[in-house]
Structures are given as C-alpha cells and as structure tokens.
Amino acid sequence: MTIGNQGDIYSELGITPIINAIGSVTMLGGSTPIPEVTIAMERAGESYIPLIELEEKAGAVVADMIDVPAAYITSGAGSALTLAAAAVMAGDDDNLIQQLPDTTGMKNEILIQKRQRYWYDRCLEASGARLVNFGTDDETTREDLFNAITENTAAVHFYMVEQEPDSKALSLEETIEIAHEKGVPVLVDAAGQIYPLDLFGKYVRMGADFQCIAAKYMGASQSTGLALGTEEMIRKISKQSFVGYEGRRIRGIGRPHKVDRQEMVGVVAAVRHWMTINHEERLASIEKRSGSIIKILTGIDGVQVSMMDNIIGHQPFGVQLRINEKITGLSLQDIVDELKAGPPPIWTRVREDEDFISLHIFGLKEGEEEIVGSRIAELLR
Q1: With the C-alpha atoms ordered 21, 24, 27, 29, is the resulting torsion angle positive or negative?
Q2: DSSP SS3 for 156
Q3: What are the counts of helices (DSSP H) followed by strands (DSSP E) for the chain?
Q4: Which residue range is the domain that position 316 belongs to?
Q5: Widest CA span in the chain
Q6: Contact in structure between 22 and 318 (CB atoms under 8 Å)
Q7: Shared domain check, 26 and 71
Q8: How many structural domains is the chain composed of?
Q9: pLDDT tens sequence across 343-364
Q10: What is the pLDDT of residues 155-188, one digit of tens each?
C-alpha cells in the first residue's frame, strides 16, 4: 500500500465509502466529529496527562455545563451502562469490585419493565447483573414495581425515549418515587436525550441516580459517552473504570472500557459546542435539507413522502418514504438493496414492523441529500 492523500484513505484499504442515509448508527461509524472536536483532540494529543486527573477535571466541567452533580466520560453510552450496573452491585468495596462479574454474595438483580426490554439492555448484563422483568407486555403498574423489589434488588432500570411516550409504562417519576422509598437506586438509559437542552441531564435532576448519554450525537467521536449522576454514583463508577484499574491497581471490570486523553477533551468540546450553538439555525438547516428530498420524490406514481417533524432528541426531522408496490413494482426492501448496490452505495433500512423507509440527514454530507433523492427517484420512475 502506497501513501496517498487523505481523501484516498479508504480506497487504499480496498473499501468503498458509502452514503449514510440511515443516520447515527453504530455499524456505519456513528458520527462525524465536528471541527471543534477534531481541533481539541489534536491539541490534546500534543501532551501527556495523568488520566485520573483528566477524568476528574473534564467530568467536573461537563457537570457544571449541564447542571448535574457529577459526570464521567466513558467509552460510549453502553460502557456507561455496564459501569453503572457494576457500581450499584459492588459499590466502594474493592474486594467486590475485583470479584465481578461473579456476583456471589451481592445484590445482583436489576429490575426492568417487561414492556421496556430493548436491544441495549444487554450492556447491563455485561457487568454480571441479572435482569428481572416486572409488569406485563400490556402495562406496568405501581404495584408491579413495589412487589418486584426484593432484598436482592441492586437497581431499577428505565429506558427513556421522550419522542416515543408510552402511556402504559410506569413513569420515571413513579419509578424514582417507589425505588427510592425502598432504598434502591434508579438507572436511566437516555443515550439520545440531548435536545431540547433541558433534557440534557434532566433525569438526574429529577432524582435518578444515573443516566447515560452517547456523545456521538453532539459531534464527538462514536467511541465516547457520558455517565451523569449523583456524586456518590459517579464516584463508584470511577472505581470501576479503566483509570481506577490502573491508577488504584484494583482489578475492576472496566479495564477494557478505555478512553484516551484526546477523546476526553473532545467530549468537553462537544458538550460546550452543543450547549452554546444556535439550535434554531441547526434545525432549520436539517429541515431544509430534508425538504430537498421530499421535493425530488413528490409526484412520482405510487410514492408517498412526508416530513418527520420530531425535533426531540438527537436526530430531528427526516423523511418517511412509503410506496405502493403494485404501482412501483418494487418493495421497500428492493429499494434498500438497490440503493446499497450503488453506484454510489447508499445505505438505508426498513425497520421491523414498519411500512416505510426513514431517511435522515444526520449522516449526510452537505449536498448528499440531493444524491439520495435523485437515486431513489431513478429507481421509482
């Protein structure tokens, strides 16, 4: 392999770059760090620093910016979940910290609403914790939680998606009330709940002991996240972390969850940028670019396009594409497959149980929305 210019980096490896119309998905790289982050990371790489001190100081700056008691930078939101689960089981006890993932003798059950089970709750189990359902597929009541808490309950977990409210689930407010009444901490997965800005850290301010954030959604690198929480909870998480493993010489399960100094500084830069940018301008740009796709596809027989007008969370607006297969001669999966085949290769997807393709601007470079719209139009005309 010869050394070429920066634009050739993937072709030198024999890989064809794709156009990402799915959005902030892990399998496609998650995010593109914003310039403020890449500059900060480059500057951070110029010097070495004790990482225990950097974790502490960077976390304090982030906590102050978003008005929570404490924060800790992790190797993604999933990492934060694993470390939090370990923290509620082992606490400050170094012997128990080194015993995990063997949970013998510990409270090792984390309660979760049956109707809130989801793909990433596996991250909690990676600590050695055992997930225990409460409630039913149809609903969850206060009594369900009250009766589910036992002497072996280490925490109650809550999956928060503000943009998709679930009236049949037990609310976070009620979860916190009941759990704390019984002396049990509450963990919240709020990975994408960063906008409106009052959502950022909201659940800790409500009384939850912990919540996680995926820093990629703010323009940091995909491999970073945040644990937000009480000072006690973040202290316990820090003891589980890779810097605790190396700096304290205590063999916790967090050793593989490494975050480098550049990434830590990059997360601080991302949070600072997110908390100070003009979000009205950000949203207006995304809405306009989504509208470009709609304009290209409007009027094609058998095609229905509409704007997704949600602005909550990390991935606002976007386009829903529905088709009449009898008219177009193509199924949604046919379209996904044809687009992926290229040229250029464009990645989209049809989620299980959905009758549309969602097209998002999050992963698109400026102008790629026109390419996406035009390629779909070529297939359907």
Answers
A1: positive
A2: strand
A3: 16, 12
A4: 6-30+278-380
A5: 67
A6: no
A7: no
A8: 2
A9: 999 999 998 888 999 999 999 9
A10: 999 999 999 999 999 999 999 999 999 999 999 9
